[in-house]
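Hello Y.,

Per our agreement to keep a running log of every chain we model this quarter, I'm adding this entry. I've kept the format consistent with earlier entries: sequence first, then predicted structure.
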Amino acid sequence: MVSEFHKPNGISIVQPTDLQTLIWPLPCRKINGVGPKAAAKL
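Predicted structure for the entry above:
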């Protein structure tokens, strides 16, 4: 997920303090393995 933040190099470091601003706003479909059915439940 984080590798998409800084294209084209794809190198990012996410600190625990960055989770709320960088990760939480993303749609749940960005999580590996979450498909349409799981996304509807989430």
